Amino acid sequence: MKYGDLGEALFEAVKQAATELPDDVVAALERARDAEDPVGRVQLEAILQNVEIARREGAAMCQDTGIQTFVVFVGSEFAHLGVLREAIVDAVRRATAAVPLRPNTVDPFTGRNPGDNTGRFVPYIVWEIEKGNECRIHLLPKGGGSENCCALRMLPPGAGLAGVERFVIDHVAACEGKPCPPGVIGVGIGGGADLALKLAKLSLLRPLGERHSEPAAARMEERLLQRINETGVGPMGLGGRTTALDVHVEFAHRHPASLPVGIVYQCWADRRKVVRVDAAGRVEVS
Amino acid sequence: MNKVLRTPLSEAEIRDLRVGETIYVTGELFTARDEAHRVLLDAAHGGERLPFRPQDLALFHCGPVVESRDGVWRVTSAGPTTSARMEMFEADFLDTYSTRLVIGKGGMGKKTLEALGRVGAVYTHFTGGAGALAARAIRRVPAVYWLEELGMPEAVWILEVEAFGPLTVTMDSHGGSLHEVVAARVEANLTAIRAEMSREA
Questions:
Q1: How far apart, in whole angstroms, are the C-alpha atoms of residue B142 and residue A169?
Q2: CA distances (Å), A201 to each of A103, A137, A167, A172, B111, in order?
Q3: Over chain B (201 residues), what is each successive 10-residue block's mean pLDDT?
Q4: Contact flag A180-B132 (C-beta cutoff 8 Å)
Q5: Distance of CA B54 to CAs A27, A61, A118, B115, B117, Å?
Q6: Is B37 designated active site?
Q7: Which residues of B touch A269 (CB under 8 A)?
Q8: Cβ separation A102–B65 shorter than 8 A
Q9: Is this prediction's pTM over 0.90?
């Protein structure tokens, strides 16, 4: 097998991400269903049934299987660092044919779709180089409908954290049902324009219910979650108590003149997988 | 008990439906996205005969994933697409073909709501992304039209379905729109949230 155990693990991870919703997301959807009004409850019940069928049949849980996105935390001494990119691209190609995944990569100039979910800069890989010889690869395939509801605002610093919260709440309400709520809202604060959006996306790697280690950020997550749900957008935008399953905030130091806020909206199909390779080369998918 | 309607649908049973009700449909659907709406309307305005009767079937805003095995079509995933894109065609389409049941997601605008009232039709919402659930209710694919010209997602697929749903009526033939109600409620909630935030500041 090409790329050995690592290649096989990456293939399994891409496949499982498309077909099996993580347990923490399923549990959050079940809690939301039990608390919801009749119209919203119908939507959540349909989502949960759909998730169950997909898991049982090994079928994609949503026809939009997303852009394949990877976040790689890799030690500079990791033995397979040199072939990691090729191994990821190969796993995406094989899983596209095997699951199957919808071919989702279109050349913006020619309109051509290579049909295997690869192309210029995709699959998209974020590299975070660390010390050591281990590796952790996060998968976050993300659909187009929710990605279209991402946003960036360069606030004047005088708007303060209250301005940040107001922007997030207004934006999520304005998206209505388009990004297929209830989902997860990633919020990146500070850095520059690109970093704010990157941090918002990376915050989605955290399991649902896990708060930021910095108490002030954790309190903002709690406040935003409560207020977003008070808007009443509800499941699929049809009204109800649950618009967001969770809110995750991440932040960087900012320029004195800037207060960038990035929002990355993830739909109910919050598909995530992790491949871990330890120093001895043992591979695990979770 | 779930309420199951069968195609062809009568005007009387559709006029009975009100916003907020959940129904299922058994019988035949046809899929139509942007391009298919254009093709079907051009055919009507050009006086052409269609290979099927849209008035007898339910209209599904969907670009399905379909595979062919031994010459038989099988739908593997068929979630709804965003209906708002079809707003520019739908009133004309309903006036032309009197289709009684529209299935999509996200709701539609004023022109469509008025046409639903004129024609005696409803718009129903199917859960976004629930492609596997939809595919399970599809029993057979009796026909496909304009596959060569429009490609798989945009072609008109005739789908034989059993208890397809849940479909929530979000726009009825009496001017009711859950989408308008929710939008107004969200605006009022936002005003209250902003006031509370200013008090805290």
A1: 46
A2: 22, 15, 17, 16, 38
A3: 92 97 98 95 93 96 88 90 94 97 96 98 96 95 94 92 98 98 98 94 76
A4: no
A5: 41, 30, 39, 16, 18
A6: yes
A7: 129
A8: yes
A9: yes
